[in-house]
Write a structure and sequence with these properties.
six-stranded parallel beta sheet, alpha/beta, EC 2.4.-.-, 2 domains, eight-stranded mixed beta sheet, Rossmann fold, 40% helix, Glyco_trans_4-like_N, Glycosyltransferase_grp1, glycosyltransferase activity
């Protein structure tokens, strides 16, 4: 099957044409998994550097960079005026020798470009939002900084696609509230690279006292503030926060300074350590060094960090929402606590750190859960079946 994946964001996440980093790893891994299954896959992303090649072959699929807008990095809000141009390029490209049988848009910007490209064709469109503006607004409140056009455009996009792919049950519910029929929403969770994330291997150096690890960008929406406040209830343990800018830039980072000031004010400064950005290929060593991984984002549709930690055999304590509520089985692979409940968060961390046998059992169950339900092989197979379904729907029935 010929599959066109559309991610209208910049291509700058491929440093020096190396492997993808950040959230776009999901899309690149989907492309590689589908290509490994014998499909002809092309991934379209925006050209943001005139010095980059227009095409790139990677892991069995082709990356095609679309010249839409200036050849420089743009924010999501700055991308909106160039969506039509991106869609026109796709339509012209697909009018040639290579034409996809199914188009899969990623993020709302990519979905809009894909929908524009196919509007005068019979090509089916599958859409993965990865996050929804209306959900982010609800959970983040004043901290939500998405473009004002996003929410109405996402609602319009739900009416232009054949099937929307949700990554968790909360997202399924949200998409149906936005007007999609339940039969037009498919739940396909993100996968985990179990060859990279597994219990056996090196661990990052650590102190003798227990370690709680938090992974995520340094922003108020990621809940590191809740964890710092909860440390007062945990006792003698260290909280390591990985993410944000490189370590040498943390001193000039506003959120890093705010978190350190909060740790001072709450009397846990000697227990909190910010290590800055960690390369993704080194994350497994950090997960293995932890006794518990704490996941406290105010919004998370995929729950990627919890899945990677579980794949490394580490129990997770996290907020019962979004992808975390699906991935973590309470009192089986970790503990789920009500979002924003700092007291319960601290008590749960303290009790789990004191329970060596419980952590051991949770860790083993976590590995089993990931390997049975969250591998990229399962994700690729689910998408393959979904594509076959939408293509068969669009094909006319022969007499």
């Amino acid at each position: 099957m010929r599959v066109g994946l559309v991610c209208a964001h910049d291509s700058s996440y491929r440093h020096a044409d190396g492997p993808p980093v950040g959230t776009q790893q999901h899309i690149a891994r989907v492309a590689a998994e589908l290509a490994g299954r014998g499909h002809d896959v092309r991934l379209y992303e925006r050209l943001d550097d005139a010095g980059q090649p227009a095409t790139l072959d990677a892991d069995g699929y082709r990356v095609q960079r679309v010249p839409a807008g200036p050849s420089s990095p743009l924010s999501t809000a700055e991308l909106i005026p160039h969506v039509t141009e991106f869609g026109r390029y796709l339509a012209d490209d697909w009018a040639g020798a290579w034409r996809p049988e199914v188009v899969h848009g990623h993020y709302w910007i990519g979905g809009l470009a894909a929908a524009h490209a196919v509007r005068e064709t019979d090509l089916p469109v599958v859409q993965t939002f990865h996050s929804l503006g209306v959900e982010q607004l609800r959970h983040l409140g004043r901290q939500y900084d998405g473009p004002g056009e996003r929410i109405p455009l996402e609602r319009a996009l739900t009416r232009a696609v054949d099937i929307a792919v949700a990554q968790c049950n909360d997202e399924v519910d949200e998409l149906t509230r936005m007007g999609l029929q339940r039969s037009s929403v498919a739940m396909v969770p993100a996968g985990v690279d179990i060859e990279q994330f597994h219990p056996d291997g090196e661990a990052a150096p650590r102190e003798q006292r227990a370690r709680i690890l938090s992974v995520g960008g340094l922003s108020p929406g990621n809940g590191q503030e809740d964890l710092i406040r909860a440390m007062r209830l945990v006792g003698d343990a260290e909280l390591v926060i990985a993410g944000g800018p490189p370590a040498e830039q943390l001193a000039n980072h506003a959120e890093a300074r705010r978190l350190r000031e909060l740790a001072e004010q709450t009397g846990v400064a000697d227990q909190v350590r910010l290590v800055g950005a960690v390369p993704h290929d080194q994350m497994a060593t950090w997960y293995r060094s932890a006794d518990v991984v704490a996941c406290t984002p105010h919004y998370s549709s995929a729950g990627r960090v919890s899945l990677e930690a579980m794949a490394c055999g580490v129990p997770v304590v996290g907020y019962a929402m979004g992808g975390l509520a699906d991935a973590v089985v309470d009192e089986v692979t970790g503990r789920l606590v009500p979002p924003g409940d700092v007291r319960t968060l601290g008590v749960s961390l303290r009790r789990l750190l004191a329970d060596n046998a419980g952590r051991f059992a949770y860790g083993h169950a976590a590995v089993d859960r990931v390997r049975s339900s969250y591998t990229w092989e399962r994700t690729g197979g689910a998408l393959e079946r979904l594509y076959e379904r939408v293509v068969s729907r669009r094909k006319p029935v022969e007499a």
